[in-house]
Amino acid sequence: MKTKIMKNVLLASTIPLLSLGSINGFAATELSLWYHGAGNPVEAKIIDQIVGDFNASQSNWKVALQSFPQESYNDSVIAAALAGNLPDILDVDGPVMPNWAWAGYLQPLNINSAAIEDFLPGTKGYWDGQLYSLGLWDAAVAMITRKSTLVEANIRIPTLAQPWTLTEFNAALATLKQTGKYDYPFDPGLAWKGEWFPYAFSPFLQSFGGDIIDRESYQTAEGVLNGDEAIAFGEWWQMLFQKGYSPGNSQDSADRETGLVEGKYAIQWNGNWTALNMLKAFGDDVLFLPAPDFGHGPKIGAASWQFGVSASTSYPQGAADFIQFATQDRYMTAFSDAIGLIPPTKTAAAASEHYRQGAPMATFFELSAQQAVLRPVTPGYVVAAKVFEKALADIADGADVVDTLDNAADEINQDIRRNLGYGH
């Protein structure tokens, strides 16, 4: 009898302990994460690993990942914001971030600035003096060609310290055109629409001395998008198509992808994301060259996809903890090795197969560090970018340069006024 009672006592005493253990096992608070990379299995594998490692590293938070196709991602976020159904953690394209912060989709990211001090500038998303987003990689654009192409044409190979000047670049295009070997000497990539235009081509405008918006006030495009320097850029841009140096708006998308490898183009303006393919195609003959200096220094675009914390989350610290966890060098190096993206830190780059010192793509890290310029950091960028794209497409088709740039500046100014200055 005594034994039976003792067994019952022991059984009763273990029930609360088992229940408590079960509760502890499911105590982690779920954090929803939306990501733009659906359809990219290589990228998805790394993101899945980060999420799994974070969930296993602690018991407070459990991140649940949902991926979207990149083409529909921004629309999904806007719809969710309007419905009051944003996730806890958002993926956001760097130049779009100020608009989402201004619109109330995002809140400041609570990460110690000292922890990201060594990150490339383009990976840190600041708006109104506060950090809102952080990227695990950056992207850079270069003049991609073959060494043999330039040597055979007796064209100087530029360096970071001595890029081509405007005169040199124009002369190089004329020389390559005269060889008769190529359909076009230079492919800027007009087959790619949307964000490619401001990302890839506004640095040319900035190198001429203009810009999309006056960055001192962010209240006007007058004088910077339609001033003398911008007009000089517009005339040069139009010249590329009038003289047959570049394929225009009707460029076939397949030619954009394979034209350089097939020998249709001598030089291509393209990003580090294509560098692995170029290395496979050309081997040691490939060159990744800096942007020309059109008078105000060589410039390229900066900022790619980044992580931020939604304004509506009840768990901002948990979301920030995940983002900081994801910024370990091993993950940033993994993205670099798998996809060719630029690691944000020198230590991550040093461990990378493609970006370590002496590696063929190390140039892109230096391009990003030395030449990269953010697209205008303003909520109004999302409208200005579309206006800029249309203006450049029209000029490429032969529209009057001065009238087109004047109209573009007016359209941007009207949008700024309608939105009461976008909070600047």
UniProtKB/TrEMBL annotation:
Superkingdom: Bacteria
GO cellular component, one term: ATP-binding cassette (ABC) transporter complex, substrate-binding subunit-containing
GO molecular function: maltose binding
Listed InterPro entries: SBP
Keywords from the UniProt entry: Signal, Transport
GO process terms (BP): maltodextrin transmembrane transport; maltose transport
Signal sequence coordinates: 1-27
Keyword field contains Transport: yes
UniProt entry tagged with the keyword Oxidoreductase: no
Family that this chain belongs to: Belongs to the bacterial solute-binding protein 1 family.
Protein name: Extracellular solute-binding protein
UniProt source species: Marinomonas arctica
